Every structure is written in C-alpha cells, then in structure tokens.
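Workshop exercise sheet. Pairs work together: one partner reads the sequence aloud, the other fills in the structure field after running the prediction. Swap roles for the next sheet.
Pair: D.N. / O.F.
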Amino acid sequence: MSSNGSASASYVRRDECVRIAGGNVDDAPGLLASIVGIGAHNSQSSLSTQSKFLMSEVEEIMILDSNMNTVAVHNKISHPRYSVKKSADQMREELLRKRNDLQRRHDGQSQALLKKHEEERSSVENHSNFTDEEMEYILMNVMEPMHQKQLRLMKERHQKEQAALMDLMFRSAFAADGGSQASSKSDEDKKMPGVSPTSSKSDEDRKMPHKKPDRKEPPENLSSRTSVSSELGTIEESSYATSSVDGTTVDDSSIGSSVSSNNNRSTPLSPVPESPNPDASQPIYRAIQEVKLNNPEFQFVDLDGQDMVPKKLWKNLFQAFETNQYVNQISLRDCGLTDEKIVPLLLSLVQNDSLLAINLSMNPEITDETGRLLIKVLNGRDERIYDIDLSETGISDQMKADIEGILMKRISVDVL
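Structure field:
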C-alpha cells in the first residue's frame, strides 16, 4: 500500500468539489476516503468507483486502506464560502466590540470634562479675592461659554467617530452578504438628510445655531486687573492638559479650547476628518446594522417620519428581523409605507420570535391588502405580537376591528 500512501485530496474551485488524485487509485479497490464536512455532510466512498466528491463545506479528508488504517489526512481543506462566512462572523464580533469600547471611551471623556468644569467653577467660587459681582461675571460670561463650547466640540467629534465606525460596520456586514447591497448607493439615497447615529435629537442640536450670550461688560475692578487667569491660577492653559478618569485618557487639546493667560481667547480645535460615508449615519442604516448584528442592547427600532427611505432599504431592514432575537418594538409612523413595501415585514413575522409591538400609523397607502395578509400571519405562525397601531392608515375599520380582536384575545390570555 506504499504507492497508495501518495494519494492526495484537493479542493477544485472551478468544479466546487474535492478530488482524490495519485497513488494508483483505480488499482486499489480497498482504499476509502472519509470526508468530514460541516453538519451532516459526512460520507465515505470507494476510490475505485468515485474520485470526485461534491461537497459544500469540507473540514477534513482521511484516506484509509482496506484495514481502515489511515494512509493520509488532509485537514486544511475547506470550502471558500465557509471561510468567508467564518471571517465575516469574526469581523462582526470585532466591530461590535470596537463600538462598545468607543462608547465607553466617549462616556469616560464626557465625565472627565464635566468633572474638570466642576473643579474650575469651585475654584472660582472659593477664590476670596473676587467680589460677588466679579465672581458672577467670571462664571457666566467667561467660564460658562468656554465650557459649553468645549462640550459642543467634544460632542461633534464623538458623533463623527461614531458615524465613521457605523459606516465601517455597515459596509462590512453588507459585504459579507455578497456585496450587492454595498456596491453602490442610488442618487435617492444620497439626497436623504444625514442624521447622527446616536439620535435624531442630537443631530438637531448640532444643526441649531449656537446663540452667543449677550456681552456683558466686566466690573470696573475686574477689568483693571492684568488677567483673570493670573488671579485664579487654575483657569489657564496648563489646567487643560491630559487628564484621566477611571483609566480613560482625555486630551483636551483635541476636544476643546484652552483659555490663554493673556487675552482669554481660545485656541482653535484641530480639524476632524469627515466620515467616509455620511449616509451611513442615517437612522435607517444604523437600524439595519444593529438588527443584523443581533445586538442584545438594541431592542427598539424608531424610524418615525423617515418617508424618503428607498424601497430596497426597507426590504433589507425587514428581512433582517427574520433572524433577530432582541428587537421587541418597531415604530414606523408616517414613513410613506405602502402595501408593496410592507410585505417583507409581514413575512419576517413568520420567523421572528421577539417582536411584541408595531406602529404603522399615519401610512395611508397601507390598505386592506396588507390587513388580510396580517390576519393570516397572526392566525398562523406569529403568536407573540400584542399591539399593532394601524390608525390613520388605509385599512378599513372592519378589518382593523378584526385585527384588534385577535390581539385582545392574546392580552386576555396573558392576563389570565
């Protein structure tokens, strides 16, 4: 059997199969190949009758002689699709870890800066050389605007960092699905207004013009002094050096501005590069990414008012609910949804086991066609949903009553 020992196995990409070659295979009717695959893809075949084994995913191949002794082992043969899937899963875990680390770092930076501001205010309040009028002026007209600016600049930087990471997560997840979704964005996508990945409210705050406080003249005694900083000894450039809270380092030179000891002017913030893909910060992209990642902390999808979302993105989101195990509420109020757009969501309810409440109100183009399909789903596979808001839709009152009756029975059973 020495000649048989040279038999080898290899994966043939073109044919998507495992081919056994060498070792005078046809002359050794007792030689067997044991192929260990993923799941139930295990098999044994005689090399005399078959030298090619179609397998979707292969972990290991053992070539055995007639006495079942191992002649050769090949344990590094795997189907490319399996390798890609494994790499994609590892990438998702790594990106999710990076996102959590980024959030913790941002929280630490915010706490450190707020603590620093509190210490500076206390320093002014405890300074015996200032009158009440002078102290009020310093707190309200010098320190407060400076602190607000630092907080605003830090918040903007955090939002850009989060948007950049969300873009990376979005592109990585879609690339793992085949890359079709991430290949290009339509012009309609690009017209959608950018929204912060943290919340729509934070984006509104960022866009609102920051009103400058009315300039108040300093008290006469205070204005005659050479410098407020020299009196305090704390509100100066050195006080904004790198600080640390709970092991989180904060470099204030990059998140805010320091007060000069000569003229109370602030140094400009270093420019922060724009997100590679601002569209990825929109709520719909964040929702798709979080649902696909199956993040346990992401349980409420709120997309109220998102009426410019393309049909393909709604489909991507709704199909992701088929495998998600943690989202329990969806709010799609006034999103311009139609019977055609909503079908993937209803179909996903057949597989989903976590959704409890759905808000579809103020979508007038959702009609009885959706209502009939919804009733079939509720009477069939889905047994968990107990609240569906269909107010101000095109569904008839009678059908709304029928759906409400199904849901009320579930609530009654839960109460009992």
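Discussion prompt: The radius of gyration is 32 Å. What would you look at next?
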